């Protein structure tokens, strides 16, 4: 029985079908409109205060987020943006981190800031000093913009950001790929701000969006690529799996890099809802409604998560404490397909922020995986 049907049956049995379905539909909005949910979440995100400033240092309110290891951005109203590095000192009075740079706005004592993974802003030239070409693949509903950073090798790496994010999410991987002389194509898909909307205006958890990744493969091959590596974050990683399994051009895919892939969709939808303050029962209803509205094929999704159709070497990077996509699902895939999957756990990392938690270790994992594929 599909989830949508199960929701109808359960609601009718309880005698409150219309009200229950309405509640489930409301909760499902976060899942089927990820961009709007991300924007709303950013506005409502918990903020911390700047408690002190010194040369190369900033003191922040002590929270679990401000004490996380690695590199992160501080963002505040009016487009303010700064980058912080390692934790230098932490106690009940505050968390002192290295202040690497302040890009936009003025950071003052008392400023309310949010910690985010967006260390790099803008396009590859603005953020990284790398020349690039703005190009586009041809999707089913129109052009899909993409950034192309040149490289001399014949294997291209196609970067697929997660839902609610944009191409800026992929910038953290570009410097290493550029050093390896790999051409890079950072792509968009239906529903992105600069891309055509999906026909029904909803996100489909990669079940239709993967065809836009396929369009990017066609663009790469038409532009001279010999093979491609698909590299995605969150549901973007799931789209990479779907493309490698379903595409008519799958034979051109030589490898997959999956950062925080969503492998247990019902659990992820429930976790995101409860993380936004929704009760567990309502989160379950929201997951049912999201499946029904998007018409995602959960049986096929489960097949992907089991690695049944996996044919190429795969690097699977996942946070052991991921609050969105359960670590257990990644571990199952890694164990089930140990013949092809290299599983790299990342402790202390948030969902799709694995590079931030340990940039050097993350890049070394990429280098070791990619070198045999060059």
So how many helices?
13
Q: State the assembly state of the protein chains.
A: single chain
How would you sum up the global shape?
Answer: globular
CATH architecture classification name of the largest domain: 3-Layer(aba) Sandwich
CATH topology of the largest domain: Rossmann fold
The overall strand count is: 14
CATH homologous superfamily title of the largest domain: Alpha/Beta hydrolase fold, catalytic domain
**Which class do the helix and strand fractions yield?**
alpha/beta
As a percent range, the share of helical residues equals 25-40%
In the CATH scheme, the class of the largest domain would be: Alpha Beta
H/E series, N to C? HHHEEEEEEHEEEHEHEHEHHHEHEHH
Describe the structure in your own words.
This protein has 374 residues and is an alpha/beta fold. Helices cover 36% and strands 25% of the residues. It has 13 helices and 14 strands. An eight-stranded mixed sheet has the order 7-8-10-9-11-12-13-14, sandwiched between helices. Strands 1-2-5-4-3-6 form a six-stranded antiparallel barrel. Helix 1 runs antiparallel to helix 2, helix 2 packs across helix 3 and helix 2 crosses helix 9. The longest helix has 16 residues. It is globular, with a radius of gyration of 21 Å.
């Amino acid at each position: 029985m599909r989830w949508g049907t199960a929701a109808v049956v359960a609601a009718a049995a309880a005698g409150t079908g219309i009200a229950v379905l309405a509640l489930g539909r409301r909760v499902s909005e976060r899942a089927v409109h990820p961009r709007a949910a991300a924007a709303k979440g950013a506005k409502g995100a918990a903020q911390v205060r700047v408690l002190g400033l010194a040369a190369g240092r900033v003191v922040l309110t002590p929270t679990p987020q401000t004490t996380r290891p690695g590199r992160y951005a501080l963002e505040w109203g009016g487009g303010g943006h700064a980058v912080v590095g390692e934790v230098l000192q932490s106690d009940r009075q505050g968390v002192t981190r290295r202040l690497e740079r302040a890009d936009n706005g003025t950071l003052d004592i008392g400023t309310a800031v949010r910690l985010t993974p967006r260390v790099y802003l803008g396009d590859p030239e603005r953020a990284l000093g790398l020349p690039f070409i703005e190009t586009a693949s041809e999707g089913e509903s129109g052009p899909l913009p993409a950034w192309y950073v040149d490289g001399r090798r014949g294997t291209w790496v196609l970067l697929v950001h997660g839902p609610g994010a944009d191409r800026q999410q992929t910038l953290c991987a570009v410097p290493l790929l550029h050093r390896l002389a790999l051409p890079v194509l950072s792509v968009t898909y239906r529903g992105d701000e600069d891309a055509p909307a999906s026909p029904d205006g909803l996100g489909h958890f990669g079940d239709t969006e993967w065809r836009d990744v396929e369009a990017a493969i066609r663009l790469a091959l038409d532009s001279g690529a010999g093979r491609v590596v698909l590299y995605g974050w969150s549901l973007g990683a799931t789209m990479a799996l779907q493309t490698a399994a379903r595409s008519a051009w799958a034979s051109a895919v030589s490898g997959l890099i999956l950062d925080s892939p969503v492998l247990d969709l019902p659990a992820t939808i429930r976790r995101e809802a409860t993380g936004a303050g929704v009760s567990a029962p309502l989160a379950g209803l929201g997951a049912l409604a999201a499946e029904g509205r998007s018409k995602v094929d959960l049986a096929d999704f489960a097949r992907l998560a089991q690695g049944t159709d996996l044919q190429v070497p795969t690097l699977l990077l996942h946070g052991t404490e991921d609050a969105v996509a359960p670590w257990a699902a990644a571990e199952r895939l890694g164990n089930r397909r140990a013949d092809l999957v290299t599983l790299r756990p990342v402790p202390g990392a948030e969902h799709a922020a694995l590079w931030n938690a340990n940039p050097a270790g993350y890049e070394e994992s990429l280098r070791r995986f990619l070198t045999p594929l060059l």
